[in-house]
Design brief:
12 helices; 29% helix; 13-stranded mixed sheet; disordered N terminus; alpha/beta; ten-stranded mixed sheet
């Protein structure tokens, strides 16, 4: 009876994210990757020639580059079984009421409209390969803020997009960014003018519904001098039996004395390969804060990067990953110190259970020009059983003498003594473990907006219930 009840709890918890709609698309491109497919995507979007040229160059680059061999095994990915473009049965809408009911029901379940009304300055919602809804409050528009989908930005602000597109993340960066540029579709574009400080966040949410397909959204954000922005990104997908792929790209440009906070909770289903790329270029006195939570996917390879180009620029990274049965989450952070008096502070937490593998992988690169740079890295791994694995793999390249650098790593099993102590105070073993895990994750939870902290705690609860179910 206990085992049956536990399974009900699991199924009910996962249904919050794992529900799926009928695969009811307007158009789904044939599986595979070819010049014909790339040209068809561009044609359907009525793109300018310069963008098609980028796509075709990226396709050539994809075939020239090898799969990475230093991380998780990606050999099960077969592009011949992946559809790279799925158009839902709607165009982009600016009114929520105009979104088709089945798609609207999906985002209603995920809480997107409610969040928009309560605390967001603007919201975008992507379903499969296209943005289906994008909206920004009128007072934001009056300040000159641009927040729209990437396709609209290419049409309406072509010179601005062309100036920045691929300039932060070049298409030669690695094999999967080349794939991204060849078939990218959807995503968001943000421009915050000089001196504009947004007190309410913007949010984009990405939902992949169609099986045997990929999502390749592109996010391009420019925060001009003395401006500030908090951008929130959410991702999820229902679980299917065959592999799906996410290979998005985020390019961030943060100008002199500007500030950007970029918060992400990723909960891809456990048949997904999440091969995402995120990078920021910071000018003089700029600051970027990354908040990252990785809970889903079969395999993740995700390493946001800050390039501290300008003097006195700074960055913080606060991240957590939770790897369960059958998951290999390889995540971390990269930072390049170039300017003088630059600062980076990294705090990473990973949890593994039921045989899951959690890896923290980082690169800290301090250039000869980065005098008086300060860098602090702290990474902690917590294993909830004896069959799980947690690794830290830091690479530190220091080419300047006049810096301050510290690195601390701790990996270990959950404390049996702590569990026993809490049980003597009246807690069950499961509740004691939950308390320890939530305390371990607390620094990340505190850094998130309230609604996303609640979501992260819900995801932790789901993972802990699975531990309980596995034992029963």
């Amino acid at each position: 009876m206990a085992k049956k009840l536990s399974k009900i709890i699991i199924d009910d918890s996962h249904s919050f994210y794992d529900f799926k709609d009928k695969d009811n698309y307007e158009y789904k491109i044939k599986n595979g990757l070819s010049r014909e497919i790339v040209e068809e995507i561009s044609k359907r979007k009525n793109e300018p020639q310069w963008l098609l040229d980028i796509r075709l160059k990226a396709l050539e680059t994809y075939y020239k580059l090898d799969l990475p061999v230093w991380g998780p095994d990606l050999s099960e990915l077969d592009m011949d079984n992946i559809s790279t473009y799925v158009k839902p049965k709607t165009d982009i809408k600016s009114s929520w009421q105009d979104v088709p009911q089945d798609i609207k029901d999906t985002f209603n379940k995920l809480g997107i409209p409610k969040a928009e009304h309560e605390y967001l300055a603007g919201v975008g919602a992507q379903y499969d390969s296209e943005v289906v809804y994008h909206s920004i409050k009128e007072d934001m528009k009056k300040l000159g803020v641009i927040y729209t989908d990437i396709d609209s930005a290419i049409r309406e602000y072509p010179e601005l997009v062309k100036e920045y597109f691929t300039k932060c993340v070049p298409l030669t960066e690695h094999k999967f960014i080349a794939l991204h540029y060849a078939v990218f579709s959807g995503g968001s574009f943000v421009y915050v003018p000089k001196g504009v400080n947004l007190t309410m966040p913007l949010q984009s949410y990405y939902r992949l519904n169609s099986p045997e397909s990929g999502q390749f959204e592109h996010t391009l954000i420019i925060v001009d001098e003395d401006a500030s922005l908090h951008f929130i990104e959410g991702c999820s997908a229902p679980k299917y039996s065959k592999v799906g792929l996410h290979a998005g790209c985020v390019e961030l440009f943060v100008k002199d004395n500007a500030k950007l906070k970029y918060s992400t909770i990723e909960n891809w289903s456990k048949n997904m390969l999440n091969l995402n790329t995120k990078k920021a270029i910071l000018e003089k006195g700029a600051n970027v804060e990354w908040i990252s939570g990785s809970f889903g996917s079969k395999i993740s390879m995700l390493y946001p990067m800050s390039i501290l180009k300008g003097d006195n620029s700074s960055t913080e990274y606060t991240g957590i990953s939770f790897a369960g049965k059958g998951q290999n989450l390889d995540t971390g952070f990269k930072v390049l110190h170039i300017g003088k008096n630059t600062t980076s502070n990294v705090v990473s937490k990973s949890i593994s259970k039921s045989g899951g593998i959690a890896t923290y992988r980082s690169i800290v690169n301090v250039a000869p020009t980065a005098k008086n740079a300060k860098c602090s890295v702290t990474c902690d791994g917590l294993m909830l059983d004896s069959i799980s694995r947690s690794d830290t793999i830091p690479v530190n390249k220091i080419a300047c003498d006049n810096i301050t650098f510290s690195h601390e790593a701790k990996v270990g099993k959950i404390s049996e003594e702590a569990i026993y102590y809490l049980m003597t105070r009246g807690l069950t073993e499961q509740d004691a473990k939950a308390m320890i895990v939530r305390g371990f994750a607390n620094p990340i939870s505190k850094a998130l907006p309230l609604e996303y902290a609640v979501e992260m705690n819900r995801l932790i609860d789901i993972e802990l219930e699975e531990v309980k179910h596995d034992k029963n």
